[in-house]
Structure prediction request, 364 residues.
Amino acid sequence: MTTDTKTNLFDLDCKGMETFFLALGSKAFHGRNVFKWIHKHGITDFDAMTDISKRLREQLHQVAELSLPQLIFEQPALDGTRKWVIELTDGQRIETVYIPEDGRSTICVSSQVGCALDCSFCSTAQQGFNRNLTVSEIIGQVWIATRELGTSPSNIVMMGMGEPLANFDAVVAAMNIMQDDLAYMVSKYRVTISTSGIVPALKKLRELSDVSLAVSLHAPDNALRDQLVPINQKYPLEELIPACREFVQGDKRRKVTWEYVMLDGVNDSLQHAKALIRLLEGTPSKVNLIPFNPFPGTQYQVSPAERVEAFRMRLKRSGIIATTRKTRGEDIDAACGQLVGKVKDRSRRDLRRSEAESLKVNIR
Ligand code: SAH
Prediction:
């Protein structure tokens, strides 16, 4: 966030930092140095940057600031997952989740305060949308995680609150910083963006950023997906699937990860599995089945474990890599679709709700 007079340097990726320092009449490499101080070393005080001259530091105090969101509290779950509740300068709160696994540490990063997409099975959707996060608020979550863990995470997934492709520029800049050797050095194969499928943004992303792609599919046909993920009415499967296929083309190591939440009696039959197999034919794919995480007021129920396993085996038999996502951090509401934060100005939600209401159909 930039105040009237000062630029928050946490809003800039490395290129932006070089440009900023050149505009000050300084050198690009000083920009790279400051970038490294704040992200790699975690320093947020210009005067602690020992290789920056006193004159330049004084100039920086005049025109720049180093402002981050604040970690308010940490909630540990029984399984080692931790939820970090983070407060933004306007008092709203977002949530970031840390998920340790053998040999890996994954953090799940939020991109918006709330979400505007209204997927019918997601509790983030219930609390509406307030605003996009800035670059500093997105990368600030990684900065906080790195300080808390004492090291950069090995994996970052843009799977927290919000639709990352609806906050395109800030998310792309933050993902650049995640991968930068002078910052967090997370491999391009280990930064994953998860989207509900905003097709034009996906095409643009392919030109600007090389990251892993996860797509919230949840249904094998338009009729059902229109109800579960309403953005499908705008960007239906016949546009989404080819765009995803193109996204991974040209890199044999890449596959699209399809996220598929298992909803009892809604999308979890063997017929659905077969339709899914047909839909994904010709696209390098992995399917990640997500057991539904219920929340108060939801109309959906959890698929029985045997049905999830039968679905997974059916996909596997046809040669599709299929895994079932282990639900983590349930006891602290940190699991998929359970992140809610604290969103101000719910009027925006009501407005969006009334639009969405007209689209709702009974799917049972
Ligand atoms: N907006 C992005 C990022 C959210 S990622 C997207 O749609 O991809 C979080 C994943 O959890 C998505 O696949 C989302 O559809 C899924 N999810 C949402 N609510 C859920 C719930 N209650 N139970 C299980 N998974 C859920």
